Amino acid sequence: MSEITYVRGDATVPSVKGVKVIAHVCNDIGGWGKGFVLAISRRWPEPEKSYRAWHRERASNDFGLGAVQFVQVEPYVWVANMVGQRGIRTGSKGVPVRYEAIDTALGRLADKATELGASVHMPRIGCGLAGGKWSRVEPMIAERLVRRGIAVTVYDHGERGS
Is 8 exposed, middle or buried (0-12, 13-18, 19+ CB in 10 A)? Predict the structure, then answer.
C-alpha cells in the first residue's frame, strides 16, 4: 500500500502531472480570511466566492460539518472546500476542529478523486488554526484515501509544525 508523501512547499502548486484536487478544511460559520485559504485566494478567486455563496445559501443546500464543495479552478485542478471545524475560536468546548466531520469529508473527497482519477494535495488539514492533532488526522487520510489507491501529498510550508 502506498503511503502519504510529505514535501516542503506550497500545496497550491502541486508539481505532478494529471488531475489534482487541493483539499483544505473550512469552518461552518462562513469565515474565510486566515490560514491556508489565503494562499488559495492569492491564486484563484473562485473557491472563496463559491464557499461564501454556499454558506449564504445554506438553508437550501448541504452546507454543514462534513460537507465538501468541489470548485474547478483550472482545467486539471480542483479545490475541495471541506467543512471540518465548528466556528473559529478555541473555547469551553475545546478547539474548533471536528474529526468526525473531517473523516466524513475525506470519504467524499475520495469518491470525487476516484471519479476524476486525481491525486490529492493538502497542507496538514485541521492542524493549523483549527487546533487539531496530525496524529489523529493522518490515520483518517490513510484510511479514506491511501487505502483506496489515491496518491496523497501533504505539504509543509516553511518550518515544520507539530
Answer: exposed
Residues 113, 145: contact at Cβ < 8 Å? yes
Per-residue CA distances from 145 to 103, 113, 117 (Å): 10, 9, 12
Radius of gyration of the chain measured on its C-alpha atoms: 14
pTM over 0.85? The answer is yes
Cα angle 132, 139, 51 (rounded to 5 degrees) comes to: 55
Own/partner pairs, 33-42, CB within 8 angstroms, 24+ separation: 34/88, 34/129, 35/128, 35/129, 36/11, 36/123, 36/128, 39/10, 39/11, 39/12, 40/12, 40/79, 42/12
The per-residue pLDDT for range 70-81, each reduced to its tens digit, is: 999 999 999 999
3-state class of 75 per DSSP?
coil
